[in-house]
Write a structure and sequence with these properties.
Layout lengths: L3 E7 L3 H15 L7 E5 L4 H9 L3 E4 L6 H9 L6 E5 L10 H7 L5 E5 L17 E6 H6 L20
Parallel strand pairs: 1-2, 1-4, 2-3
Antiparallel strand pairs: 4-6, 5-6
């Protein structure tokens, strides 16, 4: 998975994102460097400790800047061909290789919304389920796309800055 950077946002759910990252490692770690960037909204020293202890590239803000602003802040930091944007409460139960195969055509992004049974914590947010989207960053940049999501569009309560 050296060509993939896992990207996620944490906001007051350190246990959930830790489970997500551990499940990703269980399915994808093959001894090479793990490319992972996490943005910690409303970060505190206590919430940062686990990420630092596990050598995870952490970017943070002491206030909640919102989900879209957080993931967009990470966009320029990605230096791999692909970026896997995943909700913090998703649990990986299989490899993302089938998604990578789909991207080898003309797709810029592929993804999936999973039901609550695959979410690390079950239902913890008022929505249908956790999601993941795999982007071909090179194709996105060639197409002039320079953010993950429009920050003016908020479709979930947890996407809004407080």
């Amino acid at each position: 998975m050296k060509d993939v950077t896992l990207v996620s946002v944490n906001w007051k759910q350190p246990e959930a994102i830790q489970l997500m990252l551990k499940s990703y490692l269980a399915e994808h770690y093959k001894g090479e460097k793990l490319n992972c960037i996490v943005f910690d909204n409303e970060s505190t020293p206590e919430s940062r400790d686990w990420f630092y202890a596990n050598h995870i590239d952490l970017h943070c803000d002491e206030k909640n800047i919102g989900h879209e602003n957080a993931i967009n802040a990470i966009w320029e930091l990605i230096d791999t061909k692909y970026a896997l944007l995943a909700d913090s409460d998703i649990r990986f139960t299989d490899s993302i290789e089938p998604y990578l195969e789909l991207l080898k055509g003309n797709c810029i992004a592929v993804g999936e919304q999973v039901g609550e049974l695959n979410a690390a914590w079950g239902t913890i947010k008022p929505r249908l389920g956790a999601w993941l989207i795999l982007f071909d960053i090179e194709k996105c940049r060639e197409a002039g796309i320079n953010i993950f999501r429009d920050p003016t569009v908020t479709d979930q309560l947890h996407d809004r800055a407080t």
